[in-house]
């Protein structure tokens, strides 16, 4: 039996990248995992299939984030498969492109905040009646909220800074129910979001050099931190932003 046996998790944006790695890791630890996706049904089904092939339990659910009623749609789909949740991982997010500050338009700004911030807020809010006491909320943030500033990612960093604030506030709100709330801040990770930057030997070397460990982060590196926060071992950790960037800001 794994440390999360008997638990049910919902991971948003779990078809690919970091979300997929989180879903796979939580399933290996024994959790039954709701694999949320926005548009890539095939990727989500591959994640579910991999979990089931490994002896785990998982189900897929679809809902587009960043539109009115998205949180309610997610939970309605979730309710068809489970009667409660123990672990909510707000992972789904959009970068909004690397755009100079002067060229950011309102449409892209609004999308970044709708997906990264508003959806996480209301997924947590609508999830409260489903989240069991002693549960976990884990928000995927970014290193760009803590000292690493890139003007071309201003809107993205702002949206995640709001999530960091939500994390600390919810930790106080939900503490009486023994529910912990934490955020994880990755740096550049080997996912499709960074394909172009990692496509050349020079680009990969430059990203690796950001960390004293001198390598590019893999999705599993982030998933393992999330798994710790989801476990009973992290019962005394709440309201925290955990640097998962390989020490890139040292």
TrEMBL record:
Transmembrane segments annotated in the record for this chain: none
Signal peptide: none
Annotated coiled-coil segments of the chain: none
InterPro entries to which the protein is assigned, alphabetical: NAD(P)-bd_dom_sf, SDR_fam
Keyword terms: Oxidoreductase
Gene3D superfamilies to which the protein is assigned, alphabetical: NAD(P)-binding Rossmann-like Domain
GO MF terms, alphabetically ordered: oxidoreductase activity
Pfam families noted in UniProt: adh_short_C2
UniProt keyword Chloroplast, yes or no: no
Family according to the record: Belongs to the short-chain dehydrogenases/reductases (SDR) family.
Annotated protein name in UniProt: Short-chain dehydrogenase
């Amino acid at each position: 039996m794994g440390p999360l046996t008997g638990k049910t998790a919902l991971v948003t944006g779990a078809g690919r990248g970091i979300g997929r790695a989180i879903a796979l890791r939580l399933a290996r630890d024994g959790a039954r995992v709701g694999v949320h996706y926005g548009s890539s049904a095939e990727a989500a089904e591959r994640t579910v299939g991999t979990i089931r092939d490994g002896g785990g339990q998982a189900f897929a659910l679809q809902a587009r984030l960043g539109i009115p009623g998205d949180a309610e749609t997610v939970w309605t789909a979730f309710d068809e498969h489970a009667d409660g949740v123990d672990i909510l991982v707000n992972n789904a997010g959009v970068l909004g492109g690397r755009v100079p500050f002067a060229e950011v338009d309102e449409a892209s700004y609004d999308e970044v905040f709708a997906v990264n911030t508003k959806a996480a807020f209301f997924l947590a809010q609508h999830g409260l009646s489903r989240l069991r006491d002693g549960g976990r909320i884990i928000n995927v943030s970014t290193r760009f909220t803590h000292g690493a500033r890139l003007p071309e990612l201003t809107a993205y960093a702002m949206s995640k800074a709001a999530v960091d604030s939500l994390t600390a506030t919810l930790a106080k709100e939900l503490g009486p129910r023994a529910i912990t709330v934490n955020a994880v801040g990755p740096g550049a990770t080997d996912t499709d979001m960074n394909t172009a930057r990692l496509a050349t030997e020079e680009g990969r070397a430059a990203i690796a050099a950001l960390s004293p460990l001198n390598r590019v982060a893999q999705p599993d590196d982030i998933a393992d931190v999330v798994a710790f926060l989801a476990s009973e071992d992290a019962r005394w950790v709440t309201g925290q932003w955990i640097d998962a960037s390989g020490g890139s800001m040292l």
